[in-house]
Amino acid sequence: MFFKINPMSKKSCFVFRIITKFPSYHKRAGEETNFVEMIKQGIKKHTIVVKYDYWKKVCKLVDENKAYISLRIWEGVACRSSTIEIMRLHRKQKVGIESLEITDFDIFVDNKKYVTFEELAKGEGLSVKDFKDLIQKHDLSKTLGIFHFKSTKYTKVRKKYDLKKNKIII
Prior knowledge:
The structure is a single chain. With about 170 residues, the chain is α+β, with helices and mostly antiparallel strands. It has one domain. It has 5 helices and 11 strands. Strands 3-9-6-7-8 form a 5-stranded antiparallel β-sheet, with helices on both faces. Helix 3 packs across helix 4. It is globular and about 45 Å long.
């Protein structure tokens, strides 16, 4: 994650890097992810982020039209080469973030239990197996985030299960 002010637009620019190859700890290490194409085609609807509070603030700035997000890929070796911008996300894309907590048995989005691994994996553009392999290095004791590239979010399109009231909310 990177932040800079664009002197031409007076908007803040937040850089979000998209991986193009599966990381070394993944069972498909080194293989192409095709995430860029899937984002452009709308197949990959979101990505999991580790700094939920940070990206929540960024999304608020984008919504207030004070910033934009620059999606980038590494030109060569990750962290050892420059990046190439593939897309800018502005207010009109209605980017957003939801909190994500994963336990041994359940998945909570914005403190509601109603998302499955299958749904999360599909939104990531991955199989369940690939999704679980990809998030295995995340510290699941901390709140993660689901960063949405467009306006569709789980809490807006699903019935919610309220744990405190023990019932489904429409």
